[in-house]
Amino acid sequence: MKLVTWNINGIRTFKGSIKNALDSLDADIICVQETKVTRDLLDERTAIVDGYNSYFSFSRGRSGYSGVATYCKDSATPFAAEEGLTGLLTNHEGAVGCYGDQAEFSSEELQLLDNEGRAVITQHRIMCQDKEKTLTVINVYCPRADPEKPERKRFKLQFYELLQCRAEALLINGSHVIVLGDVNTSHRQIDHCDPSDIDDFGENPGRKWLNSFLHSGEQEEGMTDEDHVEESEVTSTDPVHGGKFVDTFRYFHPTRTNAFTCWSTLTGARQTNYGTRIDYIFADCQLAKEQFVAADIMPEVEGSDHCPVWGKLSCPVLPSSKPPPLCTRYLPEFAGKQQKLSRFLVRVDQKSAQSEQRDALPGSQEEEERRENLNPSGAGNISGKKRLLTSDSVVPKGKKTKTVKTSSKPQGNLLSFFKPKHTNVVPSTDATVRQCEKTNGEDKVTSSQNSQKEFTSEDASSVTSSVPADTELEFDGSPQLLKQNDKQMKTTHSHPQPTVGCSNAKKGASSVFWKSVLHGPPPPPSCKVHREPCVLRTVKKEGPNMGKQFFVCARPQGHSSNPEARCNFFLWVDKGK
Question: Structure pTM?
Answer without folding.
Answer: 0.65
